[in-house]
What does this fold into?
Amino acid sequence: MNFLDPLALSLFALAGPLLLLYFIRVRRRERRVGSLLLWALPLRQRVSSSFFQRLERDPLILLQLLILMLLALALARPAVTVMGEGERKVVVILDTSASMKARDVFPSRFAEAQSRAASLVRSLRAGTQVMVIEAGIQPRVATEMGRDHGRALDAISAAGARDLPNGLADALRVARALIGDDANAEIHVFTDGSGALPLGNEAKSEGQGNQQGQGGSAQATDARINWASVGKGDDNVAITAISVRRTYQGAANYEAFLALANFSDKPKNFNLVLKVEDRAVAERKVQLAGHVRRSMILPFRHAGAARIKAEISASDDLAVDNTAWAVLPPPNKIAVTLVSTGNLFLEKVLRADPEVVLEVKSPQQYAGGMGSADVVVLDSVTPPKVGPGRFILVNTVPPDVPVDILGSVDKPTVLDWDRSHPVMRNVDFSKIAIDSAMRLRPLVAGRSLVEAELGGALVYALEESDRKAVLLGFDLFKADLPLRVAFPLFMWNSLRWLHPGGLDHASLQLSSGQPVVMPVAHGVDAMTVSTPGGRKLDGRITRGLASFTDTGEVGVYAVATTRSGERGSTSLVAANLMDSVESDIAPRPLPQGRSNATGSSVPVERELWPLFVVLALMALLVEALLYWRRQTGGVLTRLPRDREDRAALLLRAGLIALLCSVFARPSLPQSLDRMNVVFLLDLSDSVSQASRERALGFMEAAVKAARPGDQHGVVVFGADVGVEQPLAARTALAVPGERAAAINTKGTNIYQAMQLALAMLPAGQANRIVLASDGRQNAGSAFAGAQALKDARADLHYVASPAAGVQEVVAEELILPREVKFGEPFNVKVVAWSQRDTTGRIALYRNNQFIGSQSVKLVPGRNIFSYRQTLDKEGVQVYQASVEADGDGIVENNRAIGTVLVHGRPMVLLADKDKGNAASFAAALRAQQLDVTLVEPAGIPRDMAGLQKYDGIILSNVSAIQLDRQRMALIRDYVRDQGGGLIMVGGDQSFGLGGYYQTPIEEALPVSMEVKQRVDVPNLSIVLSIDRSDSMTTRVNSNSRISYLDLAKEAAHVVVDLLDDNSEVGVMSWDTEWQWEVPMRQASNKAAIHQGIASIVSGKATDGFPALRESYNVLQKRPAVLKHVIFLSDGQMRTEQFPPLVQAMARDQITVSTVAVGRFADEKLLGDIARWGRGRFYKTEDSQSLPRIFAVETQLASNSTAVEQQFRPKLLDRGHEAMQNIDWRSMPPLNGYVATTMKGNAEQVLTSHWEDPVLATWRYGLGRTVAFTSDANPRWAGQWMQWREYNRFWAQLVRWSLRSATAPGTTATVTGRDGSGEVLVDAQDAKGNFVNFLDAQVGVVSPDRERRVIDLEQVGPGRYRGRFAAGKEGVYLLGMAQRVAQRDLGSQVASLVVPYAQELRELGSDELLLRELSGLTGGGALSDPAEVFLKGRRPFHIAQEIWPWIVGIVALLLILDIAIRRFGLGLFGWLRLLRRRT
Amino acid sequence: MPAADLLRPEFLSQLERLTLRARRPVRGWTAGQRRSRKAGNSIEFLDHRPYGTGDDLRHVDWNIFQRTDRLMVRQHLDDEELCVHLLVDASASMSVAESVPERATKLQWATQLAASLAYVGLTGLERVGLGVMRERVTEGWPPSRGRARVMPLFKFLADVKGGGQTQLNASLAQYAARAKGSGLAILISDLLDADGYEAGLRSLLERGQEVHVVHLLSADELLPPMEGDFRLVDEETGEFRQMRVDAETRRAYADNLARFLGNAESFCKAQGIHYLQAGTAMPVEQFVMGPLRGQLLD
It folds into this structure.
């Protein structure tokens, strides 16, 4: 036996006072006796004189000395060395997930697990160390590793199951990290085996070569893990998903999606009730056969802001998943002040947002600040000061916003944009053209949302403590952003990011255990969370983020925010179990662990103090009883007579009780000023040796500066994590050794490191975590870790340890468009980062085939190299780039990978007036991998379905007359609503000449058909000669009230409108006689002319000759260069008079065009007249085409539209996407074009010598349209057709205009994280209705060509989700198809790139992340090592065991006890005692 | 103590069947014991009493039975009368409180015993007299006869208070001188008198009394309960003696006690005095029905 605290033996010195008590003459108690007679003799026998004789002999004194000795021994903590399992360590992990609440075993699985864990702990031999971990969302170490089995048992019985999904993987990892590779350790997992188990099955199927997978299988195959299974039943029915989405179709405005599942074998019948605010809106009887899942959609109406509860009445073993909650967010009104000198784009977009209350101010009215607005939008207005608040700054940087403007950048090209930022959700910046932008240099934290290749940030999200702003660094008028779909989305997102009215839809619906993380509006400074259970808790707001992590309870949480004392908004958040894996409570087979592992027998100190306390207790009791018996004359049923005896016995009883209390392990709060610091040392490859050394040096210096008693521990991490030094008080830091060597350095997982540190730190103390890392995480979410730290009140500080290599070149990224059209050229951008000036070589590979390489010069920082590529293969194409540079340190990071999705050959409909003529054009396009369907104008489909087949339509020299108005409207809608492309190619039947004036197609085109006359274009005299005979009054058709005459008049109106002021016009009508309705006059006073036209009335028979002769007579005398007659008739006339007249007119340069109206017109005669008169003949029975004929005629006649001169077009917009890589210097001249006028926002790409548009493009609705006013025929483009760039020019132009191939409605996004990928498919039909109950599957091909098929699970109305393991570097290809009842709905191809050497991809430290993480927990950057332990110390209380104090006090009081016995209670007695001694 | 509480009624009815035994003929009897005179053969009618089982049917008064339908026994005065002298030591030492508070003090015990004997005597139609001993015989009860005397006597006994020093020799001599008629003299005392008791007893014998001594010691005196340091105070004299009570002391005390008891017994035997030891640990009733029967009572 040895003593752990031998000093305490000195307590035995109390024997001195005890003996002294017996030396001192005792105060004698009086006892009356009948007579002293009988007492006389003995007294005489006694003589007390010598010193030792004064020590009166009393048997009890021995007992008392024994008690003292026992107490002293107990205090000295005697321990015997027994042979125990000292090396054995047992970790008990209790699964606290929701399925553990199942009641299939009595009373519940968790209780069963508890009792089994407790019996395990009880069965352990002495000396075995035990640790208890509760596996929640964050593993919680309930008791640290220790030999005290009692505490472990307490912890086990104190644990409870919660409504959480299974978190065993994390708990196991933490447990394994805490025990290290100690072979004598064992982990006992008490679980029901349901839920996601870290058994490593998935990792196995993934095979080798994958770090995470290996980690997972190492975890699974760790023989130290023993699985103990509780639970046996599978009787559970669950709501596995609930989701409410707003719909804009049909009678209901909300659709609730519910997924139900029966996990048992038996069929189940139950009722499903959907309640909105306790009012049932839907009730269904549901019958589910065994192992059947069913989804249902329940539509309902509501005005918003409500709690929704779905309940099933099934009686099963697990109750928690029988209810599910959802919430409808309240309408969020945002008060926006727009300060602008007038910007219709902004105003329109803001007004279109139903939640925005807009106030427009002029710059004079705004002097900074927020006023009553939630968000202030400044458009090119720079007030002297804006102050704190929430802003959208367009093309302006107010002086107090910490962003520098360093000049401007011309025509910046968008390099990439931050797709993860909420402002950029669903926003596509890929094809935005910007004329010029400010060169921004932000001075504080924020995120660059859109980056240009040169010039840095174009859009910047600024985050300061009291100010949030979105900064657009360019003028909206100098960019096409306002015309793109991206713009309203961007504004919508920005407003909600700046003024969060609560949560977005996804955050309203949490899985239990997920933290509520809510950005708050300006000024919000406090929040209170009401839990479903009715508790009220305070959440913390740091950096504009309110967060709350304790969501381990299913139900609706109300988050109420306070704005400087006033009540702000209340947001509701629903937390549900919604984990079908967790709800499936059927126990799964668990691997058999090593049974009954025992550690070697080693000497173990076994503390014996409780034994001594027990003995002392017994001695105390016995002594008291003896004394009692003595004082009552052997009767224990009575109290002794004397007051002092009673008092002494009472005190003794108190002492015994006090000593008994030792076994309850009493403790007292003890204030401690101690800092517990866990250093997280990033060992990943991205942190250079030098900066690691620096971090170590920092840590060493910090430990040296620690106060005595301060504890520190070291966790090393990379892709995995290990405990280098457990938390303990040491005076010096040890150099990382074995553990550090075993760390997988090919990744950075800050989250796991945080989790482990949190497990090491004792709860409730002054805990600090110091992260020495570059912050380049590539697995796990450090943010979630920081949330957990914040909840645990531990603060995180960081020491940035950036890479500091000598020379390093990284192929950072390979930027590719997500999808391109077949044959469409695109740029492969290789982003190479270099530390120094160097030269290198970039090699590009496509699908593992070498394409080419190039020598490049690299400058410090980012270098971007762009390579143009065109693909003629459908599907996902994988590009790889490698960068090799001189003196490069690390080679793993020199490869980048990217994919591009190539859609199939685009289908193009080419319509030409003359099929034969167009053949060569079609051939040119086909040569460029376009699938061309050549049709005559009549062959253009008449319905949308027909058009939908094509990605674009080319109208090459097609006259509007050949298209009826419905078809033109159809084509317009096809472009506007379906995103189709439209190209109009010129010719004598196109544009103005084709009669497109005031047609739907003109609406869609970037040019208008009106032509401004130039001075030198000869002016025109035109006569409209209209048949007003009786027959003209016949109705166009039987159910119309319009006559041919009306149409003719209408046509005349159009003609007049088309004429410019220099022209002359005369309108005559005739029957057998002619009459000038409008005598020949200048077209300037159009009102008078219109009046004249209107006055035409019908006459008698038909004889056109006199009228034509009169026209001739009048025109002959006019000075105009161009003279033209439009002659309209519907009847038969004598023919013989006409030829000489018309020939005479032709001689006099008067042209005649004829229009035959109706069925009875003399087509032959009219045709002849037109031929003789060098005009054109039209025949129409179609009422609608008549005005267009007139228009064409007018334009033709005016000769204003067709310019038949040779010219060389001028390229205005070199940056136009469709015009790239064309050798313009070799461009041959064109021979003519159709004059048109540019529309305001269209882009003029090519222009003629007259500065008329030759090539113009713009975006119309969802589609794009192109106007090429010259032709694709030998007539005007004869030399062009010989041009070697001709085919490419057309192909690029056509491709540019084509619509993107994904069918509208169904979108699939693939995201990857932590070794798994997630596919999210949103399905909507053409009308925008959600498509539900799809049979959706995804085929996944892994980088090593392994194929797998995963089913997508519906998670909401029209929303499907699937997950797959993606742990290998390379490209995962995904093919998706959706079917409803065997009918194919659509299919997509997508890919997920897992980059190579992720760890080394980005070098340099991510201070922003580090700052955000630490800021969240209230920490920050550390520069002075002394601060590590000394900054912000806060004393805390720990429970200190006080049994030694109690033992000591008992020993002291024992002396008092005996003193009372001997000297009584009264002060008098004591005084007398003193007096006697003096 | 109220007189009624002195003895339980049940005990009284038990007592009724007892008679005092006198060892010697008192007057004119030639031989043998004095018989019970329950069925007195004298002609002098004394009293009626209810019939009890065991009574001779010859003594039943049939006239009364005829009248009242109750069985009554006729009692006649006996020719030979016995005078019983009850001598109770009431000195302060007799009234020292016991360590067990509910236990009777010696004085209480003594009065109870005296009451029992007096009851037996009076119901046996004897003359009963009483003397309370302190320094002298301070109070007393002249010998008198008849049932009607019972309650007053009891009342008297109940009122006896302890106090005063013991002077057994003197008080016994005084009583002996005064006592009329010889008979039984029963002394109930702890005999703890520094001057002794022998002379007093002798003087009783000299007057022809048949002397009985009930040597009463309290339980505490027989086995001192205390242990430790005490200041023992003499109840009568106020003298004290400091001492430590331990096993050795107790042994010495026990020796003292044994010697004291032995002395008393051997003295009585030698003088022909009936000697009976009693302790307060045994209740009076038990003592009367036990050790006393056959010795003093039949």
